[in-house]
């Protein structure tokens, strides 16, 4: 195990998706690529690496997660052989918090996946999901923390369903990349994810400019759909999704009401 990860409890694997760790480091032109077999969460390992001084651009991969998580502590099914489970470390000068962070990451991931896998047609579901064929293709988890030197760093984890038929039977509403475009190499999917995350997260914007909003508008899966917005046990607000604001907030137009900005809570289709 490398010095920067010496405090970690997980044991590093020798390779991933048929490639040795050395080959992956050469492939992505960096030494800070770490691979594990079965771990609780790649985000947790990336955080520990960052706290130990891992540089921006550090990549953490695993074959299987036993405690993968999504937004608001929800679990993310991560069985071996079913998908891509990848986290990256970034050290931007200014850290942007969700929802803008996951919106930016989502747009750039969808853009890159669509470019590399023609016919996929992935889109962004606010605030942190990727969808294809009207079903969930992947999820994004962004977290911020400080290392020993008090510098702020950013951890972004991405889970993508890749192999058809390998997801657990009890996972509803999910779709795999292979269902949409046929078999895909995990390394090719990882290439798309790394390229997507590195498009803007090293210098993550504090707001979306006009060009970014136009791009988001084309990829916004919720826009012009009737949705339910829930916060804890309150009565859900029902309205029409009217797009995304420059700060990443969801714009919701309730029936007969003024436009609202949504920055937290859960979103589901319904209420038409």
How much is the average pLDDT?
88
Q: What overall form do the CA principal axes indicate?
A: globular
Structural class determined from secondary elements:
alpha+beta
State the end-to-end distance. Answer: 55 Å
Residue fraction in strands:
25-35%
Q: Low-confidence runs (pLDDT<50, min 5 residues)?
A: none
Helix amount = 10-25%
CATH architecture of the largest domain: 2-Layer Sandwich
What characterizes the major β-sheet?
A: 7 strands, mixed
Tell me the strand order in the biggest sheet: 3-4-5-9-8-7-6
SSE succession:
EEHEHEEHEEEEHHHEEEEE
CATH topology of the largest domain: BirA Bifunctional Protein, domain 2
Global Rg: 18 Å
CATH homology superfamily name of the largest domain = Bira Bifunctional Protein, Domain 2
Number of domains: 2
H/I helix tally: 6
Number of strands: 14
CATH class of the largest domain: Alpha Beta
Q: What this model shows, in words?
A:
- It contains six helices and 14 strands.
- With 272 residues, the protein is an alpha+beta fold.
- The chain has two domains: 216 residues, 2-Layer Sandwich (BirA Bifunctional Protein, domain 2); 48 residues, SH3 type barrels.
- A seven-stranded mixed β-sheet has the order 3-4-5-9-8-7-6, sandwiched between helices.
- The chain is globular, with a radius of gyration of 18 Å.
- The N and C termini lie far apart (55 Å).
- The model has no long low-confidence stretch (mean pLDDT 88).
């Amino acid at each position: 195990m490398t010095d920067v990860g010496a405090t970690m409890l997980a044991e590093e694997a020798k390779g991933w998706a048929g490639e040795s760790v050395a080959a992956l480091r050469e492939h992505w032109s960096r030494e800070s690529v770490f691979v594990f077999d079965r771990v609780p969460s790649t985000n947790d390992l990336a955080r520990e690496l960052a706290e130990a001084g891992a540089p921006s651009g550090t990549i953490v991969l695993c074959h299987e997660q036993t405690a993968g998580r999504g937004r608001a502590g929800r679990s993310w099914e991560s069985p071996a052989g079913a998908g891509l489970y990848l986290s990256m470390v970034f050290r931007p000068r200014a850290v942007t918090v969700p929802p803008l962070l996951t919106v930016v990451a989502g747009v750039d991931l969808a853009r890159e996946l669509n470019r590399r896998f023609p016919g996929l047609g992935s889109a962004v579901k606010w605030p942190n999901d990727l969808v294809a064929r009207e079903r969930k293709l992947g999820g994004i988890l962004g977290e911020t923390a400080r290392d020993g030197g008090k510098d702020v760093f950013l951890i972004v984890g991405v889970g993508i369903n890749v192999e058809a038929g390998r997801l657990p039977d009890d996972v509803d509403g999910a779709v795999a990349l292979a269902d949409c475009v046929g078999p895909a190499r995990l390394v090719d999917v990882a290439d798309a994810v790394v390229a997507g995350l590195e498009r803007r997260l090293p210098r993550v914007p504090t707001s979306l400019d006009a060009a970014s909003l136009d791009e988001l508008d084309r990829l916004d899966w919720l826009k012009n759909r009737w949705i339910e917005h829930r916060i804890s046990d309150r009565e859900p607000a029902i309205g029409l999704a009217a797009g995304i604001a420059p700060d990443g907030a969801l714009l919701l137009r309730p029936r007969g009401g003024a436009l609202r900005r949504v920055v937290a809570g859960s979103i589901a289709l319904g209420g038409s």
